[in-house]
Amino acid sequence: MIWLLFGSIGIVMALLVRWLVPSKQAMSVASAMLVGVAGAMLGAIVTSAIRDGSFDQMQSAAVVGSVVGASLVTVLVVLAGRATAPASQG
């Protein structure tokens, strides 16, 4: 059940980051949501491992870690996609 929460956080944060980063993006909305979920899971795992190594109870630190992880990973992927996307001529 806790992973569902982290997955939801990842989707919301990915959509928010995608909305906030201006310009045309090479990544689709579905890809952004998957990257956000992966970032949220990664953030929750790292935060929980640093805190006490347990996933038994929901901890506020893990939730904050999932928000930070989802945001950071999504921003990095979006910016990397912009850097490698061909420049449009117009």
3D structure, described in words:
There is one protein chain. Helices cover 74% and strands 0% of the residues. Helix 1 (2-20) crosses helix 2 (29-51) and helix 1 (2-20) packs parallel to helix 3. It is mainly α. The mean pLDDT is 76.
Tags for this model:
mainly alpha, single chain, 3 helices, 0% strand, 90 residues, elongated
Q: What's the short version?
A:
By secondary structure, the chain is mainly α.
Indicate the mean pLDDT.
Answer: 76
Unreliably modeled segments: none
Radius of gyration, in angstroms, nearest whole number: 14 Å
Q: From N to C, what is the helix and strand string?
A: HHH
What is the end-to-end distance?
A: 49 Å
Number of E-state strands: 0
Beta strand %: under 5%
Question: What overall form do the CA principal axes indicate?
Answer: elongated
Q: How many H/I helices?
A: 3
**Approximate helicity band:** over 70%
> Which structural class should the secondary elements be placed in?
mainly alpha
How would a textbook summarize the main sheet?
A: none
